[in-house]
Each structure stands twice: as structure tokens, then as C-alpha cells.
Amino acid sequence: MAVYRPKAGKKQDLEFEMVDHVPLLRRLGLATDTTSLVLRSPDGTIVEHFEWVDHDAINAAHEHPEVLAMWERYGECCEFGTLADLPNASSMFAEFEYVGSY
Fold first, then answer.
1. Is 102 within the bounds of a domain?
2. Which of 15, 19, 59, 99 could be cross-linked to 38 through a Cys-Cys bond (beta carbons 3.0 to 4.6 Å apart)?
3. What is the CATH number of the domain that holds 77?
């Protein structure tokens, strides 16, 4: 799972980048065909669930030029976080708004 906190005025830019994120990882053989799930926390943070092919794929992504370029674009529109950063993470039934699946 990945957590993205949009920078001020960059919510739409982040959502635009999300559309190609998992499809690119799939095209490069780094993510499975399992449908991804994109949700929004009440504070506006985006949570994305997708499945890496394996642990080595995570490492390979950190070296692939197309992935690095994509993550640079992400860095322009969001801050990266963790699930623990979510204000509703400690709720038994945490609420999220559905954004999309890719």
C-alpha cells in the first residue's frame, strides 16, 4: 500500500498521475494484474493498494528510469507517507472515499 498526501493545489495533478501508475508498473512486469484500489482518507490523503510481482520488483522499480521519472512527477504534487500517518488509521472501521481502480 502506498500513501500520498497531495501538496496544496495539486490534488488534481496527483489524481492524474495515479491513472498511469499501476499500468506502467504492470507494463514493466513489476505489478500483478490484480485490480488496484485507490481511496481518499477524510484528510485528503490518497491510499493506493496494488500488488507487486514479488519483493525483487520493488527493488527493480527503484532502478528503472521510467519509474523514477514517474515518481519524480509524484514528488512534485505530493508528499509520500505511511499508513500510520493517516488520522483515521486507528479507527476500527476507518472510512475512505472510493477514488478509482486501475
1. no
2. 99
3. 3.30.70.100
Asked whether the beta carbons of 21 and 61 are under 8 A apart, the reply is no
Cell of 29: 512486469
pTM of the full structure: 0.86
Please name which of 29, 69, 67, 34 lies closest in space to residue 50, comparing C-alpha atoms. Answer: 34
Does 80 fall in a domain? yes
Contact 22, 36 (CB under 8 A): yes
Q: Is residue 44 part of a domain?
A: yes
Q: Report the alpha-carbon distance of residue 75 to residue 31 in Å, rounded.
A: 21
Strands (E), 1-102: 2-6, 37-40, 46-49, 78-81, 97-100
Cα 54 from Cα 7, distance rounded (Å): 30
Dump pLDDT digits (tens) for 68-96. Answer: 999 999 999 999 999 998 988 888 898 99
The boundaries of the domain holding residue 38 are 2-85
Q: Is 90 part of any domain?
A: no
